[in-house]
Structure formats: C-alpha cells, structure tokens
Amino acid sequence: MNMILPYVVLLLTCLVSVNCIMWNLEPNTQKCLREELQQNIPVIGEFEVSDAPGQTVDYVVTDSKGHILAKRQGISKGKFSFNTESYDTYEICFSSHVPQNQRGITQEISLVTKHGIETKNYDTLGEAAQLKPIERELKKLEDLSNAIVHDFSIMRKREEEMRDTNESTNSRVLYFSIFSMCCLLGLATWQVLYLRTYFKAKKLIE
C-alpha cells in the first residue's frame, strides 16, 4: 500500500489544473489571459515581473461583467487570490506604463495560477489536524477524487444541455424544412393555376 500510494497521488495530481506561463510585455502595452471557471472555485496566482527602471506594471482581475476581483499597481513580485462567484470567464490583464520622456524596454512576466484543491496547503492542514504523513496523503487523495467526480458531473450536465440544444435545433430545422416545402408547393400550384387562367384568357389554350 505504501509503495502504490505515491504513484496514485502522482496520477491524480496530473489531473489537477496548474497553469504556468511566461511572456514578454512590450512597453505601454497590455496582455490579457482568460479562463472559464466553475462557481465557488478558489484561485491563487503568483507572478514575477523583470525589473525595468522607471517603468511600472499593473494587473487587474475581472469577470465578464467587468467586476474587479483583484487589482494592484506597480508590481514586481507577489500573489493574488479570489473566489469565483459563478460559472464565468475570468480575465487577468497586465499593463505596462512608461513615461513619455523615457524609452521603454521589454519586460518578462511569469505567472503561475492554481485553482481548486491545488490551492490547499496540505502540510499546514496536516499540522493543524495533527495528521500523520499517510493520513495527509489520503486526505489529499480524497479531495482529488471528489474534485474529479465533481468535474465529471459538470461535464455530464453540460453534455446533457448540449444534447438538448441539438435535439431542439434539429426539431426546429425539420419544422422549418416542412414549412418551406409547403410554401414551395403552394407557390408552384398557384403559378400553375395562374398561368392556366392567363393562357385561357388569351385563348392560347382551351
């Protein structure tokens, strides 16, 4: 059991979302990153900005409605955290500011984001609850399993919603096709009758 447990932990850890990204931010520009998150998900971000004398970098975290969840100016290195209020697309933007009388240089920014159970510190929780190392790992496994089950339930719900949407769309397309065929048949019948009446009036046919 003790030999298998680390491999199980490693396998389940691979399923937890941890995003690490690094990019170059040009002077007086803005770079934004977006991600869709479920409701009531804790998010932790850790960033680091390369030094550039006279230049400043700000960041702001918002949702699709423009609500500010975290904001800070003149950053160099630090962390931010927030909890998602609803299923939405969340955005973090880094902005560079350079004085007009100064020539700016490119700054390198690194960002690591974690959400869900990956934000928990199991070492601290284990010490507070006086858990043994094996109990701490089992607790982490339990949380990972619950998170995976929750993700699968969300995926199943979204699949059901997409299937209902597809079925509804197919029904509407079918009814529209039948309506279009009826209109075409009616128009064709009217044209035949109209032309027949017209030709009879001109005595072209009997």
Write the layout of secondary structure elements.
Elements: H1 5-13, E1 18-25, E2 30-37, E3 42-49, E4 56-62, E5 68-72, E6 77-83, E7 88-97, E8 107-115, H2 122-128, H3 133-201
Antiparallel strand pairs: 1-8, 2-7, 3-6, 3-8, 4-5, 4-7
Main location: membrane
Subcellular location: Membrane
Keywords: Developmental protein, Membrane, Signal, Transmembrane, Transmembrane helix
Tell me about this structure:
By secondary structure, the chain is α+β, with helices and mostly antiparallel strands. The protein has a domain at 5-119: Mitogen Ypm (Jelly Rolls), CATH 2.60.120. Helices cover 41% and strands 30% of the residues. The protein contains three helices and eight strands, in the order H-E-E-E-E-E-E-E-E-H-H. The strands form two sheets. It has a four-stranded antiparallel beta sheet with strand order 1-8-3-6, with no helix packed on it. Strands 2-7-4-5 form a four-stranded antiparallel beta sheet, with no helix packed on it. Strand 4 (56-62) and strand 5 (68-72) form a beta hairpin. The radius of gyration is 31 Å and the shape is elongated. The termini are far apart. The model is unreliable at 1-16 (pLDDT under 50). The chain crosses the membrane at residues 173-195. Residues 1-20 form the signal peptide. Belongs to the EMP24/GP25L family.
Keywords:
signal, Jelly Rolls, elongated, transmembrane helix, membrane
Residue-averaged pLDDT, rounded? Answer: 84
**The first-level CATH class name of the domain at 5-119:** Mainly Beta
Biggest sheet: strands side by side, in what order? 1-8-3-6
Element-level helix/strand string: HEEEEEEEEHH
> How much of the polypeptide forms β-strand, as a percent range?
25-35%
Quaternary structure annotation: single chain
Would you identify the CATH H-level superfamily of the domain at 5-119? Answer: Mitogen Ypm
Task: Kindly state the number of beta strands.
Answer: 8
Distance between the termini: 98 Å
CATH architecture of the domain at 5-119: Sandwich
CATH topology of the domain at 5-119: Jelly Rolls
Q: What would you call the shape? A: elongated
The number of helical elements comes to 3
Are there runs of 5+ residues with pLDDT below 50, and where? Answer: 1-16
From the helix content, strand content and strand pairing, which structural class follows? alpha+beta
| Radius of gyration from the alpha-carbon trace, in angstroms | 31 Å
InterPro entries: Emp24-like, GOLD_dom
Main location: membrane
GO cellular component, one term: membrane
Domain GOLD: 30-140
